Each structure stands twice: as C-alpha cells, then as structure tokens.
Amino acid sequence: AFAQVNVTVDASKPGAVIDKDVYGQFAEHLGTGIYGGLWVGPDSKIPNTKGWRNDVVGALKDMHVPLVRWPGGCFADEYHWREGIGPRNKRPVKVNTNWGGVPENNAVGTHEFFDLVEMLGADAYVNGNLGTGTPQEAAEWIEYMTSEGKSTLAELRAKNGHPAPFKVAYFAIGNESWGCGGNMRPEYYADLYRQWHTFLKAPQHLRPKMIASGGNGDDTSWTEVLSRDLKGRTEGITFHYYTLPTGNWDKKGAATAFPESEWFSTMTNTLRMEDFVRKNVAILDKNDPEKKIGFDVDEWGTWYDVEKGTNPGFLFQRNTIRDAVVAALNFNIFHAHADRVRMTNIAQMVNVLQAMIITDNEKMLLTPTYYTFKMYVPFQGATSLPVALSNNTTYGSNGQGVPGISASAAKAKDGKTYVALVNTNPHDATDVVLNVAGQNVGAVRGQLLTADAMDAHNTFERKDAVKPVPFSANASGGKLTIKVPAKSVLVVAVEG
Ligand code: AHR
After folding, report:
1. Is CATH 3.20.20.80 correct for 20-381?
2. Is the preceding peptide bond at 36 cis, omega within 30 degrees of 0?
3. CA of 28 to the centre of ligand 1 (A)
4. What topology is assigned to 4-10+385-495 in CATH?
C-alpha cells in the first residue's frame, strides 16, 4: 500500500491529436434509450424542445457530446428511412424485432435526429441499412440528407422542414454484418460494401466519411479482409467489444451487489481492449501504412445481466463506480492509440447498457459514467503525450493481476497539460509521483471521482451519491506526489 508509482509524461514528444469523436455516444431504437429517455414528443408534459427532453439534452450538452450514432445497432439493418419522415401521425408502426418486440412508431426519424444533434452541438453518425435495404434506398437517403441542388428529394426535405442540407459526419454501411446485420463472411461483406460505396454519392464538401462495419472481440479477420479489399474506399473500419464480468453471455454478472472477484474480472476483461486495439492496428499498419483508415470502436462498454423486473429486451442496467473506472480505462487505451482510434461510441447514451443518464418518467439521474466523460472533456481535440509508468502496483494475485494504476496525458486546446489517473484497486490508495519532462510541476488541480462501495451508484432518492469532487496537490521539495484513492478516476491539469 506504500509503494510509489512513477508516472512520467513527456511534453516534448507530442503524439496524435485525440479526435473529439473518440468521446462519441450511441443512441439506438432500443428500450427507453430514445423513446421516454430522450424523446417524449412535443405534446408531453415533460418539458421538451421539439419533442426532446430539456433535462436530458441539457445534461448531455454539459458533457460536450461530440457525436451521436443512430439509429442502431441491430435496429439499423431493419430501418427504412422513408418510414420516418413526413407527418408523424401518418408514419407506419412496426415491430422492433431486435429489442423486445415492442411497437416502433417511427416518431423519431431523420429530421428529429438532426434536431437532437443540432441542439447538442454534436456531429451525426448515421448507420445505414445493408441487411434488409438496397443500395438505391441508401443512395436516396444520402441524397435526401445532403443534396443542395434542385432535386425532388431535396425539395421533400425542405417541405418536411429543413431546406438546408444536413451535415452527416459519418455514414456506416451496415452493422455487425457477421451477426444481426446478415450473418455474412467478411469477403462477401467486402464485395457488397464495394458495390454500395460506388453509388453513395454526395456533394464533395458534404460527403460523409464512409465507414465499414468490422469485427468484434478477438476476431481480427474482418480488419484483415476489409483493410485489404476496401483500400481507398473507406475512412474507418469499426470494431465492437463489450466488457462482461464473467465473459459468459448466458450469465454475464450483475450490475450491483457483485463479489470482488467480478470487480477484478471486469477490470481484466475491459483491459483486453488494449490487446484488441494493438492486434487490429498492426493489421492496419500492414495493409494501410498511409493511415487513411481509422480503427473506430463504435460499440463498447459494460454489459451485465438485465436488471430484475425489467423487460429483458430493453438492456437496462444500473451504473456504478465500477462503470466509471471501466470508461476511464478505455479512454486511456484510446488515447495511447489516438493515431488510429479516431472515433468511438459507448453503448449507449440513455437507459441502455452503460448509460450516461437514467430516466424514470419525468425523473432523471446522472451516472458515474457520465462524470467520467465530463471529467475527460479536456482530452477532446487535445494532443496526446507519451506516458511512462514505472514501479506500478498490481491489483490481483498469483501472477494474474492487472496494473494498479492506468494513466494518460495530453496537451489540451487551452494550452494546459492534463493527466488522467485511474486506480483499479478497490481497497488501497496508491501514491503516484508525477513528472512532466520539459515542464515544471508545481501543483495539479482537477476533479476526483471515487466511492466507498464497489457498487456505489446514484438513485432517484440519492442522485449525488457518486459525483466528482475538486482535487488538488502541491509539490514539495521539487516532487509532486498524488494520493490516488482506491477505485477512482482522477483528471488534473498541471500547473507550473
Ligand atoms: O448495443 C446493443 C447491441 O449490441 C447493438 O444493437 C448491436 O450492434 C450489438 O450487438
């Protein structure tokens, strides 16, 4: 417990810029992720703007959401955009076959989605339907969203309330095409992608980045095939990885009241992201040395057993200090690979899986994960800096432990150097001695997120049980030591 970990940041060797879109969110038509959690409709008693909840949108603005992926997920491959435009009371009602078999009334469609991202000041990531759609349908959706000239679809967009084109930052061709998106092999997907990509046109300055749907977990074959066969045709290959405490999809582990063994296995499993990123990036470095293709982790986060008493198709789970630590560990990994990992989306923004926000009718609470995202805002668009750890502690025993401290650093747009420190150990604080090569460290100042219990979380009765507190430490005798509490996330700015 008295070990001192040395964390050395090299401010003289700036790395890649951490794209703001690394902090992206995912909002699927799933459970109450959109309906109820974000969208209540303009006639609701819940205060809203154009149908979107003011409380939820306000909180999301406070955490500077840079990017939202929509409409899925598995849902995307059964989504037909024409069913979601025009008067809402005339839109068809369908069965949401992926998520609980509930009615989908198409109240949220293209225009509503862009209202949301415009309110958030975020960019849009639209996920196209390769599974049950056609290249014509996708080409027309892109024309509808981006056409500026005289075209019937552009006029229809204007008639539906938006004369100016929408800005689509990313457009993905399919989702999980190895699974719910069509059970394809990567070679077949690559050929389909090439065909579709040929016809997905937009005015040059409004052209979305075209994204290929890639692999998941330890399967690197999708990255291998797609980076070989889609050269010059894609700006990003996606990757999905969910953190399950047990690693077993039939019995994933509980979100709260879990044993320490599952805190530990959650840390172990989430840190596998490092290995996955490394292996896939090595393939990209071989097939795409010019670094034209990003490695975009467009679904990640914890996935627990669904909360008892809730619809199993809605993927509702509670969110604790463990989730906050998981999020921070993943950010530290993404920062270290900022040259390739250019966009990610946590699953999902509201009420689904590792959510930022949980609602219950008119009530709303912010989760520990929300606070991790908010504390890391200075890293959006910052320049990553190399970090070396020595004498790190280990959490866990029998040679199977995980690093006690995880760290990352960057020079932010405000000119300051920021350091993020995470302590994976749920019992012991750790002393970190911070050095910044090329910069005097007189003090650090920032925010600390921690809690007493491993499953500490916010409830509607105690909304502030877990939230960040101000943190500072001063150098003494030319040395700056930071006591990083057990199970904590700490983000500080370095002062001279
Ligand atoms: O995020 C929930 C689901 O997980 C997504 O719809 C799908 O892409 C993945 O399997």
Report:
1. yes
2. no
3. 9
4. Immunoglobulin-like (2.60.40)
Task: Please indicate whether residue 73, judged by its CB atom, sits closer than 6 Å to ligand 1.
Answer: yes
CA atoms within 13 A on the CB side of 495: 10
Contacts of residues 174-177 at CB distance under 8 Å and 24 or more positions apart, as own/partner, are 174/76, 174/77, 174/127, 174/128, 174/129, 174/130, 174/131, 174/213, 175/72, 175/73, 175/74, 175/76, 175/77, 175/127, 175/130, 175/131, 175/213, 176/74, 176/213, 176/216, 176/240, 177/130, 177/131, 177/213
- The residue contributing the CA closest to ligand 1 atom 4 is 73
Question: Mutate which of 34, 99, 176 to test ligand 1's pocket (most atoms within 8 Å of Cβ)?
Answer: 176
Nearest residue to 395 (alpha-carbon basis) of 454, 448, 346, 446: 454
Q: What is the pLDDT along the chain (496 residues), one digit of tens a residue?
A: 457 999 999 999 999 999 999 999 999 999 999 999 999 999 999 999 999 999 999 999 999 999 999 999 999 999 999 999 999 999 999 999 999 999 999 999 999 999 999 999 999 999 999 999 999 999 999 999 999 988 999 999 999 999 999 999 999 999 999 999 999 999 999 999 999 999 999 999 999 999 999 999 999 999 999 999 999 999 999 999 999 999 999 999 999 999 999 999 999 999 999 999 999 999 999 999 999 999 999 999 999 999 999 999 999 999 999 999 999 999 999 999 999 999 999 999 999 999 999 999 999 999 999 999 999 999 999 999 999 999 999 999 777 899 999 999 999 999 999 999 999 999 999 999 999 998 889 999 999 999 999 999 999 999 999 999 999 999 998 899 999 999 999 999 999 8
Could you tell me the pTM of the whole model?
0.98
Write down the domain spans for the chain.
Answer: 4-10+385-495, 20-381
Please report which residue ranges of 388-448 form alpha helices under DSSP H.
Answer: none
Let me know: does 22 contact 342? Beta carbons within 8 Å. Answer: yes
In Å, what is the CA distance from 124 to each residue of 21, 43, 114, 120?
Answer: 10, 26, 7, 10
Residue nearest to atom 5 of ligand 1 (CA): 73
Pairing label, strands 168-173, 383-385 = unpaired
List the structure tokens of 35: 């309906």
In residues, how long is the chain?
A: 496
71 preceded by a cis bond (ω within 30 of 0): yes
Note the ipTM here: 0.99
